[in-house]
Amino acid sequence: MAKYYCVLFDADNTLLDFDAAENKALTDTLREYGIEPDAETVQTYRTINEELWRQLEKGQIRRDKLMGERFTRFLKAVNAAGNGVEMNKFYLDQLSTHPDLTSPNVLDVLRELSEVATLAVVTNGFDRVQGRRVRESGILDFVEDVFVSEKMDSEKPNRKIFDAALRALGVENREHVLMVGDSLSSDVQGGVNAGLDTCWYNPNHAENPGKVVPTYEISSLEELYPLVMEPEELANVGLKNRRHQL
């Protein structure tokens, strides 16, 4: 019998290509404000943004502070004029229009797994952005629900977002739940905090510094098949199989 009947997926850089979406949205935003999107300028924004997200994940700041400050700090750093709050709104509007997938086979993998397990997305981010990207990417066809940190009022790695998601899905036995994501600090640590087995999606074969140890490590989403499927289901990938009961 397969071990996992419920699989929780991170969105950005696991199912959705956030790096590609961010590049496009940030380029459009900078040009809208008359700022050349050269490598140094883009890195300045990313450094500010990543630091604020780290603080948010640690519970050191609130979401509205990140929203209000990242472009305000950026404009000051590059000595450019503009309203940081309005710039952030424009950026999020642009970001929501880019539902790029991490690979062409993402939907095929979700289709196969959805026949044998309950799937859901647990993602940090903003509801109007993530909701639209998940919907327009086609992911929504194969998942039971999408849990976005803004709407849930809790960010990964806090276990509260996982607790709420599992309650909503009607899942009680956490031994049969697997959390899959690309971030050790957010997805894997969050799964550990919630008492779940975890799978680190590591397509670029990055080194694990060892602070957080996942249950599994994969470099392609197809490697989830033997973790989730029963032997006869694995042998018949592409055919509709029965759903597990939670």
TrEMBL record:
Pfam families: Hydrolase. CDD domains: HAD_Neu5Ac-Pase_like (cd04305). InterPro entries: HAD-like_sf, HAD-SF_hydro_IA, HAD-SF_hydro_IA_YjjG/PynA, HAD_sf, PGP-like_dom2, Pyrimidine_5'-ntase_YjjG. One of its GO terms (molecular function) is 5'-nucleotidase activity. PANTHER family: PTHR47478, PYRIMIDINE 5'-NUCLEOTIDASE YJJG. This is Noncanonical pyrimidine nucleotidase, YjjG family. It comes from Faecalibacterium prausnitzii.
